[in-house]
Amino acid sequence: GGIDSAFLAHSLADTGRLRLWTIGIADAPEVEIARSAAGALGLPWGFHGIEREEVARALAQWGPLLGGLRGPARSAVVSLGLAISSAPSRPVIVTGQGADELFLGYAHFRGMGADAADERRRADIEKLDREDGPRLDRIAGGQGRKVISPFTHPALRAAATSWPTFEHLPRDLTKPLLREWARHRGMPEPILQRPKRAIQYGTGVDRLIRRLDRSPPELP
């Protein structure tokens, strides 16, 4: 339901081969937002409800890939992994990974000047290419899936970074240039006005992981 995935869905709608997919706990705010966005875009949509046990299994299964990740970084990866593993049986999954790095969507960009934001964007993209992207590829490969993340394409990166960095800086909403591009392409206005909500919070996965971290270990 966010601007990243909605932009891709809107751009690929004419292929006739797209199905939108959302995961979350039963009362996750992302569920109704995603349902509404799919309706506005006129695209088929599905939902997979997740519970504590499924998240615990994912943490155990992907533990070696998660390495030293903790907090929101870990729950974001688990959220994406659960979305990929639970999706209907299709070989290719399209994700919005890379949009926050490219269009300055992360919270740490707020309050930065253009020079600092440009330096941080380069570091974020380097980390995405070196760590986050390959990690998600391995998780998807273990499920027999292939991940495509259009926002990491070199041509799109070149186009986005050709604009002055100050044009990308967060305003009332993040990713102003991406939102303006989406508006130019005919994206429904209610989607354009939705604030960013990180996947780990919108799905409720971060909440479940924090509960698991507080739980005492089970006896053998």
UniProtKB/TrEMBL annotation:
This protein's name: Asparagine synthetase
A biological process from GO: asparagine biosynthetic process
Residues annotated as domain Asparagine synthetase: 1-110, 113-206
Keyword annotations of the record: ATP-binding, Nucleotide-binding
Keyword field contains ATP-binding: yes
Biological classification of the source: unclassified sequences, metagenomes, ecological metagenomes
UniProt cross-references to PANTHER family, sorted A to Z: ASPARAGINE SYNTHETASE, ASPARAGINE SYNTHETASE [GLUTAMINE-HYDROLYZING]
GO molecular-function term, one example from the UniProt record: asparagine synthase (glutamine-hydrolyzing) activity
GO CC annotation: cytosol
Annotated Pfam families: Asn_synthase
ATP-binding listed as a keyword: yes
